[in-house]
Structure formats: C-alpha cells, structure tokens
Amino acid sequence: MLYERIAGRDGRHVSRSARAGVALVCDARQGTRPWKKVRLEDLSACGFRIAWFPAARPDMPLRLKIPGMQILSAQIVWQSENSVGCKFSAPLHIAVFEHIVRSSGPA
Fold first, then answer.
1. Which intervals hold domain PilZ (predicted)?
2. Of the candidates 2, 28, 30, 27, which has an alpha carbon nearest to the alpha carbon of residue 16?
3. Three-class SS state of 94
4. What percent of the chain has pLDDT over 70?
5. Is the whole-model pTM more than 0.90?
6. What pLDDT, in 10s, does the model give residues 31-42?
7. 21 Cβ contact list (under 8 Å, min separation 6)
8. What is the pLDDT of residue 6?
9. Cα distance between residue 101 and residue 18, in whole Å
C-alpha cells in the first residue's frame, strides 16, 4: 500500500491517504449519459483513479458501480490525457476499502 499526496485543482496538496493499486473493471457515468466500462487502477478511502473516461466533465458528479457494491458518487478532481482522478462524495469505510482491495486482481 502506498501513501501519496493528493493535489487539488489548484495544485496544492490537500491530504495524505493510503492508496492501493487495483485492477477492476467497473461502470461509470455522468448525468444521464450511458454507463461506460472503465478500469479502476488506484483506490483510497477518499478517492480513486480510472483509466481513460472520454468527455469527462469536472462540473458534473460521476457515479461509479463497483461489482457487488452500491453505486458510489464522486467528483472529478483532476484529468490527464489518459486518466481521471476523483474524490468520493463520502469516504469509504475502511472495511469497504479493504474488501475492494482484497477482491481486486493484482494491479
């Protein structure tokens, strides 16, 4: 498990969070757009990183369906050419975070 600084939109580091590399295929959507398959690559109790989510809009909430879990709501915090970083609307309980990490394949 890694501990990594998370940078906000203004570039300032806002927190330190335990992060785990994961390899999960999930569904994501914004607004009323169709659900799209995404690859969850990085997870913490406070947020996550997904690979390539086309036409992502930071001004709209993102919904994430992890297999076997309820739909989670998040906000896009940063975007790069091929990744999107998000912050959960409500942090995951540590037991939920650990369950997802154990359930995922090797990153």
1. 16-102
2. 2
3. helix
4. 81
5. no
6. 999 999 999 999
7. 2, 41, 42, 107
8. 47
9. 12
Q: What is the pLDDT of residue 1?
A: 44
Please tell me the distance from the alpha carbon of residue 91 to that of residue 97, in angstroms, as a whole number: 9
**Other beta carbons within 10 Å of 103:** 13
Domain ranges of the chain: 19-103
| Tokens coding 47 | 């947020």
Options 2.40.30.10, 2.40.10.220, 3.40.50.620, 2.40.30.110; CATH of 19-103: 2.40.10.220
Mean pLDDT along residues 61-89: 94
The gap from C-alpha 69 to its chain's centroid, in whole angstroms, comes to 14
Other beta carbons within 10 angstroms of residue 45's beta carbon come to 18
Tokens for 26?
Answer: 């999930």
Burial class (CB in 10 A: 0-12, 13-18, 19+), 27: middle
Res 12 pLDDT > 60: no
pLDDT at res. 16: 55
Kind and range of the H or E element at 103?
A: helix 94-103
